[in-house]
Every structure is written in structure tokens, then in C-alpha cells.
Amino acid sequence: MKTALWWVRRDLRLSDNQALAAALKQAEQVVPVFINTPQLVNSPYAGEKRLAFLYEGLRALDSKLRQRGSYLVVRRGDPVLALSELYQEVGAESIFAEADYSPFARRRDQTAARSLPIHFTSGLMMYSPEAVLKAEGTPYTVFTPYSKAWLAQPWPGDPLPAAAHIPTPPGIRGEDVPSDPRLPADVPFRAGEDEAQRRLEAFAENGIFHYGEGRNRMDLAGTSGLSPYLRFGMLSARQAAATARLAEARAADATARRSSEAWLNELIWREFYITILYHYPFVRKTAFRQALRDLRWVNDTEDFSAWAQGHTGYPVVDAAMRQLLQTGWMHNRARMIVASFLTKDLLVDWRWGERHFMQHLVDGDPASNNGGWQWTAGTGTDAAPYFRIFNPVLQSMKYDPEGAFIRKFVPELTKVPNEFIHSPWKMPLELQTQLGCLIGRDYPAPIVDHKMARERTLQIYRQ
Prior knowledge:
Blueprint (H helix, E strand, L loop, with lengths): L2 E5 L10 H9 L2 E8 L1 H5 L5 H19 L6 E4 L2 H12 L3 E5 L4 H13 L2 E4 L21 H9 L41 H13 L5 H4 L12 H5 L5 H14 L3 H26 L21 H9 L5 H13 L4 H14 L4 H11 L5 H12 L14 H8 L4 H6 L8 H4 L7 H7 L14 H13 L1
Parallel strand pairs: 1-2, 1-4, 2-3, 4-5
């Protein structure tokens, strides 16, 4: 019987899985395989919570496979060597995998393709980095024209249903999915395709129609909560985009329709950043904008530590950083605020923040994370102007008006009245004493004066 390998990487799902569908079409037996590589654990960008989420997702995938007459074969080591060994062992004739576009993934896949018959399919993105280009064949480096070209692409077909049966030869040797690390209870995401589908269905029912208004509010559940599932392919990009299109079609009014469009726009941003990293892999190491590659960063290690631990004295910054440490996730508006604070208020190199995020985010994605940090630092492709410096107090007042987000993650400020929750250092000393919240003792005083820091940063960027 013809046998094919399905090499599982960032596509931990059965529905709308083009690599699996291609393998089932070509072969009579399919062996799902995941290669647990040293880079997953040993990279300075590795994150324990993200690794735990991946492992939990692999266990969930194995469970779904077993319901369909199959199972997940886990091997450890160099991916090309492990894959070659399994290929020979089962007498496979071909290997199918969903294409990935990060610099690491491309190097790995090019090496594998030199010695093995691997067929790469779509699935990670709606449109590959080579598909959405300017008329002369060069990549877009500004989001708005990219998004227009993206929207003008032909629809790549509807999402594929999950296979009802996946025949896999019995008795193939494999390891258990590692039991450590385990996903902490504070992480608000359960891994797996079923949870991704549940969240998508709930969001499509109502949340997507209020996304335009609610997505920036840190104190509300106004986002889809699907980023970890897209990161590991527990949900396909095509199904997410199809959901947005259906929502646009059934929106009750213009506001609901604009909200659906806004969520689709975020999916396009994801593809834009993957495309940028594909065509300009140097952005992982340096600024896209050449003029800003030699900024005179201060890089004070104590300032960075205070930021990383959520002890800056600015409540919204501290709440967001503690949310990251506790839950492995951070609201997107909060990501912009803390990134601006690190790079513009503290003048710490954006690459320090990029690495810290990757070490803690469950949804940490090399392309989106890099793109977001360079956007905020003003060094990237479609960057915020260097003079756009978020005022953390004003941002907090606008997007956490009652201080609910702050109080959730900064318990020292629980009793602080709304009048002072965004800038507690302004509280009269008598009130601080009465509340048991002395600034500088129970909660830090601001580690930097925002107005002074803003002027310093503007001067350095101008130079």
C-alpha cells in the first residue's frame, strides 16, 4: 500500500488541513509525525508557556487522530535525520507538510527537500509571501497597499472538512509527548483544535460585530482570543478569513460590518508581517529602516528589569507586564503601550523587548512579534512615526477608564480611587497612608518622568 508521511509543524488540526488532505489523496496510508527538535527548547527565544501549549495541543491532536483510526508518531532530534529514518522505516513514498516561512523554517525545509521527496502545501497563510506582490514583482513594504492587493486576490476555495478516517499502519515506534512543562492554570487558553473551533464559533456569533469598539479596551473581553490557535495552526488562516467574510455578509448594520472588516484587517496584518520577514529576514537582527539602525539606546539594565517585572510605577505598564508573566498573553493595546514605554520612555533597544515577549507569550510568533516591536519603535517597514510616543497615563485613562484592568493585575492599587488609579503618585500623602499604599514603599514611584523622557527621545531620534 502507498504510504505517505504528514509532517506536523504549525498545523495542529484536522479541519482545513491542506497537507493532510494532499497526503490522503496521494496515499492509502498516512503516518502523522511530529519531530521534537532541540531548537524548540534551547533557543533564547523559547517560551515555557508556549512550549507547554504546543505539547498540550499535540496531545489533543493525537486524541482526535485516534478517533479516526490513526495516531501521532513523535520522534526526537534533528528533523531531517528523524524524518529520513521514519521514511525508510515505513517504506513511505512521499512526505507532505504545510509550508512555513520564517528564516529557521526555510533553512530546515530546504535542507530536508534536498534529500527527501517533500511536497509543501498552503495553509499557514491565505496567500503565500510570493503571491501578493507589486506589479513589477517586488514585495510591498507599506501595509495599506499590501492589504488592498491582498483583498483583490482570488478566493482560494472554502475550508476543507476534517477527514472522517485516517488509515495509519499500527505499531510504529514513537515517544510520548513530553509531560513537562505543563500549562499553568493561570494561562486562559486550553490547547487544541476543538477549543479553537469553540472560540471561533462564539466570537462569530456576537463578538466580531463589536470588535471595532471593544478591541482596544483592556478591561473588556473585546478580542477574539484566537491568536495562540492561529500561531500553532489549531485554526487555519482560511477558516478565520472565511468567518470574517461571512460576518460581513450578515452584519446587521454599518457598525457591525466595519467591526468584521476590522478583524479581517488584523488577519491581513499577520500575513503582512510574515511576508516582510520572508523577503527581509535581516529584520530579526536589525532595524528595517537603515537610518535608524544606529540609535543611541541607553539600555539601562535596572530600567529593563523594572519594566520586565512590572515595577515601573506606571500602573497600566505594570498591569500589562504582570499579565504577561502570569497568563502568557497580553492585550494588543497593552503590547503597544509597554513597547512604547520601553523603547521611547526608557530608550531600551526594541530587541530586548522582542526577546522578552517571545520568552513569555503563548502566541509568540517571530514575524508578528518582530513587526509589532519595530512598528512601535519606529524602525520598521510600516512604522509609527518616531514622534509618536504613547503617554501611558492618557492611554490608561482612555482604554481602562475605571482601572479594572489595573486592579486585576496590580493588587497593591486595589483600593486606590478612580481619580488616582492611572497616576497614583499624585495621591495626597494622607490618602496614601489611609489606603495603606505609600508610593515608593507599597508601590513604586515612577522610574522615569514621561515628559522629560519624551523630549530626550525626540532629540535622539532626530539626530
